[in-house]
Amino acid sequence: MNVVGLDLAGSPNRNTGFCLLHRHLVSTSVLHTDEEIVSETRMADPAVVSIDAPLFLPKGRTSLEQRGPPHLRACDKELLRMKIRFFPITLGPMRMLTARGMRLRKAFEDEGLTVIEAYPGAVQDLLGMPRKQAGIEELRNALLDFGIRGGIKKKDITHDELDSVTCAILGEMYLDGNCQAIGDPDEGVMILPDLSRLRSH
After folding, report:
1. pTM of the model as a whole
2. 25/169 Cα distance (integer angstroms)
3. Are strands 25-31 and 149-150 parallel, antiparallel or unpaired?
4. Which domains does the chain have, with CATH numbers?
5. Which of 137, 147, 159, 189 could lock 183 by a disulfide, CB 3.0 to 4.6 Å apart?
C-alpha cells in the first residue's frame, strides 16, 4: 500500500515536502500550491495521507481568529507531558499552517482518503533520530539506518523532504497498527509511534 507524507508549509510560497512511500522505498519532491499537493497525492492513490500540520482546533475554539483561550489541544498537552517541543497552533505563523492543514484535510477526506496528523519532530524524538535542526545529513543517515531507500539518497534533498519521509514512515506505522493516538477523539488526535508494539515486531 502507498503512503503519502506531507511536510506542509503554511504558505504556498514556501516549500512543502512530499513523499510517496511503498515498502520503505521512497520518492520525494518539493511542492508549493494546494493544487499541486492535491494532484500529486491523488495520483499516488495512498492508503493514508500523513500531514505535518495541525488539522483541528482546540475544543471550545470556534476559529483561529478567536482571541484568548483555549490555545492548546488535548494532544498538545500530552506532548508537554512527554517533554516534546512544539509550537502552539495559535502562535503567529502556526495560524496560517493550521488553516491550510484543515483545508487540505477536508479536501482529501472529501475524496475518501484517510488523513492523519503527524508531527515529525515527535516521531524523530521517539525513534531516537535527530531533528532536521541537527543537519540534513544527520537526519538522512538516521532514516537510511531505519531502512528507508530510494529517493532519500538524492544529493539535493531538502529538510522538508526528509520530514515528509518521517511523516510517511508514521503513516506506514498507522497502517500496520504500530502507533498510538494521543488527544481527545471528540476533538481530534495526533498519531505517534507506539514503541512497545514496534519492539515486539
Report:
1. 0.94
2. 10
3. parallel
4. 3-199 (3.30.420.10)
5. 189
